[in-house]
Amino acid sequence: MAGPLRAGLASLGQLLGWVCARLWLAAVLCALWIAALALLGLTGPLAPYGGDYAIVDEQIRRSHALGATDVLLLGDSSGLTAVDPAVLSRELAGRSVEMLSVIGPVRPPGYARLLRNYLDRGLAPEAAIFVLHPFALMHAYDEAKDGSTLAAVLEDRWPSDGFPGDLRRALNRYLFAGLLEEPLAGTFGALYGNGRELRGALAAAHGSVAHPGKPMPGAAPGTEPRAAAGPAKIDYRLGDDGRRSLERMRDILAPVRGTVPIFVAFAPVPASIAGEKEAGARSRLLHDVVRILGLPPEHALELPVSLPDEQMVDPTHAGAPGRAAFSTRIAPLLQRVLGPVQSRR
Amino acid sequence: MQFDSTTFLLFYPLVLVLYHLCASSLRVQNALIAVASLVFYAWFDWRLSFLLLTYVLVGYGAALWIHGERDERRKSRLLALFVALNLLGLGFFKYFDFFRENVAASLALLGLETSWPFASILLPIGISFYCFQKIAYLVDVRQGKVEPERDLITFTAFGTFFCQLVAGPIERAAHLLPQFQQPRRITRAGVEAGLWLCIWGLFLKVVAADTVAGYANVAFQPSHHTDGWMVIEGTLAFTLQIYFDFNAYSLIAKGTAHLLGFDLVWNFDRPYFSTSVQEFWRRWHISLSTWLRDYLYIPLGGNRRGTARTYLNLLITMVLGGLWHGASWSFALWGLLHGVALCVERLYRARFPKVELPAAVGWALTMSVVVAGWFLFRVTSLETARALLGSLDHFTWKPFDRAAWLAMLAVGVPVFLIEWWQARAGDLLAPARYARVPYSILVSVLLLAIFARFYGSPYAFLYFQF
């Protein structure tokens, strides 16, 4: 027995010896590559891969890097896809407009944190406008599932994915420059390709994105609006989660409330679910939000309530035609609020 | 289990260690390979290992029976019977629903409605590969090219060898079986070659193929806003994906076999450098194209029965070769396209024997056929093909297009540079023999890329479905 085992061990030892002899230097070089990334401080936690994460990560970066602007738009993805800063800028007599809107799970405290990131650099826009979707204030978010983006915005760094996740992300972004990223899921992948291109498109569009989805099926007369990404009917009741979230937002905004006029507006909903009867409830909810945030009542901006269904992708997001139409429609209202152009920074 | 799965990364080293510990006994090593192969196959679906064992046992018994038979006509009848049995199994598992659907459609044309339900039969992974390998073994035994293996353990190890079981290369018994019959000699050069093939194969699959796969998948999704650019990019991405993916499998198969002391045939030899479709088929899926030549084209008469029959034989071989990939008319069309291209080339050479096309022109024409063929191969249905071709009337450049081209360039350029280097050296193993420092720099980058993109088999190897 000892003989065959000794022969086996010898065979195994020989194999391992040859493997090590051929690969030891490559292993050392791998370690050196990783050490170089670590020495340059590039192995810290990065955003996970995905469209939502790319948007949030890019807006965090922009909140620290953006130059002076006249109007700053913030909020959730309803505003991100419903307002085109370029159209607004043209309609607002050349005022510069930038957007730092993100996605719903970032929640109001996160939107406020992005504004603070911007203002804390000594910049002072004419107005900061939060464009929110009423649904986002009625709906409770699952912290365990959706909390990572809020945590990233509040702490200004992404939660660690541990080893090897963090190192993988660092290698993909820095060593391979994001070129090996696969396409994003769904229609965002079909229009924007990967996260790297989405970031570029978002930055090029002053912080907004055109939603690539098709018009909602409810656009056809006599059909029901689809239930995806929102309710078929909105009752405009502020949920407990929404209230707590707004209170946290108020606390984060407290130090800057006097330095810049802050406004709140609601994003449009599809005409088929807007409902004339709910108009009063919508307005009351908007004023409740403004009150909770400790803002003057006139800082509740009553924007057009709805867009035709064919201009919406789902109950919370406008499609590209809706984005252009809504931006054009809100411009005169904003112009009235902002008054004549006074300054250029 | 897939080669690029965490399971295989644990399974293979364990087998390798046990295999080397049994170095003093060939029989134990073969038994280990047989058991490991059945475990490897059962990992996909344990029920399939019974089917595989049936194929092995029938092949084992049939070869001995054919060989033991003295009457030549009975030998031939037995061979026909067992080849038919093999094909019956393949046909049942792979083509039953296709056959049923087409019969129902034909009857519907005659006004006869049928309501036969789909059988939804589980497709055993790799059945086309091991079925063809068994057929080749029986034919070779019948023709006296190989002696039938009498030891059941040796034959089971040969018939189930996990390195090449599910996606080839389709090995000939004359080449592989003797390697199970004699003690394997493991050399330093063999180990170095095996390491390079495994690393390069993993890079091709995990980094190159899987990166472009995403773009091909998006572009071939009819529900997406497809335009002309997307169709072109999707087709090119798939052209790269299918080569990187299948070549990756073949290289890892060869590499893992090398570390066990086996030598498998090369399945690819830089096919996208071909300057004619005929050359392409000498470089693409070599084990299948030579199988089709030896066991289908030549038995049909090859080029020995006149010009018209030669063309017909070529077309039959290529259409059946297309259908071997799957039960869909788009595969048959793909085969037909290549068959027609081969006939046209043959005709051209016969008419203009002294007029050689410039290499660049030959390459461009060949790649046009190849890329158009991959479009047919990928669409899976003729309706999808029509819808996608309809998108070629409008082109709108968008971020997706930039991302797709950058991804294709990012993975395509390094791969084809390595292949160009192999061509210059005239040696497919040239990188494995490179000096220590440049080799280590190259391998370190490949390993980091594999690590960065290793998420544990997001996409199955394409040829698993065949």
Describe this structure as you would to a colleague:
The complex is a heterodimer of chains A (345) and B (466). Helix content of chain A is 51%, strand content 9%. With 345 residues, chain A is α/β, with parallel strands linked by helices. In chain A, helix 2 (51-65) runs parallel beside helix 5 and helix 5 (107-119) runs parallel beside helix 7 (143-155). The longest helix of chain A is centred in the first third of the chain and has 38 residues, at 2-39. The model of chain B has no long low-confidence stretch (mean pLDDT 91). At the A-B interface, helix 1, helix 8, helix 9 and helix 10 of A face helix 1, helix 8, helix 16 and helix 17 of B.
Characteristics:
heterodimer, A: 345 residues, alpha/beta, two-stranded parallel sheet, 51% helix, 9% strand, elongated, B: 466 residues, mainly alpha, 70% helix, globular
Low-confidence stretches of chain B: none
**Content of β-strand of chain A:** 5-15%
**How many strands of chain B?**
0
Give the topology string of chain B: H per helix, E per strand.
Answer: HHHHHHHHHHHHHHHHH
**What is the residue-mean pLDDT of chain A, rounded to a whole number?**
88
Strand runs of chain A, count: 9
- Radius of gyration of chain B, in Å, reads 23 Å
Largest interface here, residues on each chain?
A-B, 49 and 53 residues
Oligomer: heterodimer
Numbering strands along the chain, what is their spatial order in the largest sheet of chain A? 2-1-3-4-6
Q: What general form of chain A does the structure show?
A: elongated
Query: What portion of residues of chain A is helical?
Result: 40-55%
Structural class of chain B: mainly alpha
By DSSP (H or I, 4+ residues per run), the number of helices of chain B equals 17
Shape of chain B: globular
If you average the pLDDT of chain B, what whole number results?
A: 91
Order of helices and strands of chain A: HHEHHEHEHHHHHHEEHHEEEEH
Please state roughly what percent of the residues of chain B sit in beta strands, choosing from under 5%, 5-15%, 15-25%, 25-35%, 35-45% or over 45%.
under 5%
Distance between the termini of chain A: 87 Å
Low confidence ranges of chain A: 219-229
Q: Main β-sheet of chain B: number of strands, strand sense, barrel status?
A: none
